[in-house]
Amino acid sequence: MSHLFQHLAESFRRPDHWVYASRLDTITKYRKTHLGILWMLVPTAIYIWGIGGYLGALQPGIDMQRFLAHVAVGFVVFRFVMTVFTDATGVFSTYQSYIYDGNMRLTDFVLRLVSRSFYYFVIAQPLLALAVLASPDFHWGGVPGSLIGLAVLMVNLFFYSIVLGLIGARFPDVSELMGSIMMAAFLITPIVWYPDAAPAGTLRGALMRANPFHHLVAGIRSPLLGETIEPVTVYYLAAMTVVGLVAAAIAYRVFARRVPLWL
């Protein structure tokens, strides 16, 4: 099981491939546009104040500032997770030429994927701050807890991207399937609705609490907006992290060397 962590340590000792390359991926994508990377803010702004504002207006009596903050954090976090997991299924085929040239430290490619999506997440923070600071539920004391939730999210994104990348290399159809899975997951994740709408003991409550994306979002959003974190969320995230670590380590040790043959 040390194979994965050996490569991961080497990737952190030599971050030139994934740190600079992921930044270059982001810059070159928008270099020919007039607004440049500011285009990365457009989807977030449209979703928070466009879709979020519209859905909030459909619910009489709702506190709009509170609702927009709820939507903002949920959308930005879920988009981060969705982008990483969707791209992870094809990450090794994307860098097929590098792998054929003998670069078998696959952790470089996964870290490049995660860090590229993290840039989008970071760039969205000014808009997120505008929505969150306007909420009457926001309090600065929740920021450390939210950062812990973000750290747990990052760890899980890496481990599960390793697993998804190996599965996607062996079964390319998984890449097409992942888009549908993420769309379904969005509907049962409380992004544009409150978790209170899915109480425990109901079918919709069971579906929400079985949904890992709900717990990943709640780990970041709840401390920030003063929402209650259910004990099941803490247990779920702890179990999810351990399972992801073990699964990624075993899968990497057994299957990483077969990736060039699968591609």
Automatic annotation (TrEMBL):
The chain crosses the membrane at residues 37-55, 67-92, 113-134, 146-167, 174-194, 234-255. Keywords: Membrane, Transmembrane, Transmembrane helix, Transport. Belongs to the ABC-2 integral membrane protein family. This is ABC transporter permease. The lineage of its organism: Bacteria, Pseudomonadati, Pseudomonadota, Gammaproteobacteria, Lysobacterales.
